Amino acid sequence: MEERNKTLGEFIIENQKAFQYSSGELSRILNSIRLAAKVVNYKVNKAGLVDIIGAVGEQNIQGEEQQKLDVYANEVFIQTLINREIVCGIASEENDDFITVQGSDNCHNNKYVILMDPLDGSSNIDVNVSLGTIFSVFRRITPIGTPVTSEDFLQPGVNQVAAGYVIYGTSTMLVYTTGFGVNGFTLNPAIGTFYLSHPNMKFPKDGHIYSVNEGNYVHFPQGVKNYIKYCQREEDDRPYTSRYIGSLVSDFHRNMIKGGIYIYPTSSKAPKGKLRLLYECNPMAFIAEQAGGKATDGFGRIMEIQPTELHQRVPFFCGSQNMVEKAEQFMAEAE
Ligand code: AHM
Ligand code: MG
């Protein structure tokens, strides 16, 4: 059965042709992510064995120090990309500043920068709940041949050339877009191969699931409070179902398949929101839009925000188009 499905490797090669004058750099980046995802997946699946193989900070049987999983994932993705010398710069949610990739070849000649959250939802690590990796690729804007600058990373999301996520869930999937729709690939761990399992993914235009940390309700803006009450009201096809994993990738993935909205608003506790524009919101927004969904900060399109700092936070409303528009309507009315 699986042999009839395309593998991710085959799909990447086939789709390289969609890019005119393609040099293959983007395909090589995607292949590196595919590889790093498999390495991280192996480690994530062993996380539950921590009592047996040693906790963070302890030495394992080989005398190696056990690392925190998010630190490990960060190193795997960064090293995989650096070793292949295919990007000129890397920014990660785990690092304060961006990395200028050096390498034996002159990496200043590479066209792309990558931004990522190597292991999102890290509060779920110790409790065996799904985690994710999120990535976003831009063409640099400073001249080829020169070292990257912050300008190359501080681009609005509309400039993304690729974005995707890996979900380490009941099965491991890699979902990505290069601006020609969204495709999902499921890992067969027995042979370490991703197969095309979810071609041309689409958000249902409407949905019945809302995902928000309702424990923070008292701290939310009035528009969000009103929208939550709307979701809970017995009227038409409501009340909606509430589902919140606390792992953005998993909540997004479920909502994209079933139809739903994810909200992480501003609150009196987090006046700018919690999620990072560059590492979390922009890539998810690109995927959402490519799947026919919508992503806003409650008022305007996420991908049009001009970033001013690497770790900038924004409120995030993302999911089925009609649901996001309804939430925006409540936000505008409460202004
Ligand atoms: P992290 O990058 O520190 O893991 O935080 C991001 C995560 C998202 O995956 C998730 O949707 C959100 O934080 C949950 O936050 P909260 O626990 O405040 O609801
Ligand atoms: Mg994160």
UniProtKB/TrEMBL annotation:
GO terms for cellular component: cytosol. The keyword Membrane does not apply. Binds 2 magnesium ions per subunit. One of its GO terms (molecular function) is fructose 1,6-bisphosphate 1-phosphatase activity. CDD domains: FBPase. Residues 6-199 form the Fructose-1-6-bisphosphatase class I N-terminal domain. Substrate binds at D120, G121, S122, S123, N213, Y244, K274. InterPro entries: FBPase_C_dom, FBPase_class-1, FBPase_N, FBPtase, Fructose_bisphosphatase_AS. Mg(2+) 2 binds at D117, D120, E280. The keyword Magnesium applies. Mg(2+) 1 binds at E93, D117, L119. Belongs to the FBPase class 1 family. PANTHER family: FRUCTOSE-1,6-BISPHOSPHATASE-RELATED, SEDOHEPTULOSE-1,7-BISPHOSPHATASE, CHLOROPLASTIC. This is Fructose-1,6-bisphosphatase class 1. The gene is fbp.
